[in-house]
Amino acid sequence: MPIADLQRQTITEDPPNRETPLPALLEQFTPNDLFYIRSNFSVPPIDLATHRVAVSGRVNAEQSFSLAELKALGTATEIATFECAGNARLSMDPVPAGTAWGWGAASTARFTGVPLRHVLNAAGPNDDVVEIAFEGADHGTLDDGRNIHFERSLPLETALRPDVLLAWQMNGEPLPAENGAPLRLVVPGWYGVASVKWVTHIRALNTPLEAHFQTERYVYSGEQGLADGTPVRRMRVRSLIAQPTDGEALSGAQTTKIAGVAWSGEGEVSAVEVSVDGGETWQPAILGDPPGEGVSRLWHISWTPNQTGSVSILARAQDTAGNRQPRDPVWNELGYGNNLIHEIRVEIR
Ligand SMILES: Nc1nc2c(c(=O)[nH]1)N[C@H]1C(S)=C(S)[C@@H](COP(=O)(O)O)O[C@H]1N2
Ligand SMILES: [Mo]
Question: What is the pTM for the complete model shown?
Answer without folding.
Answer: 0.98
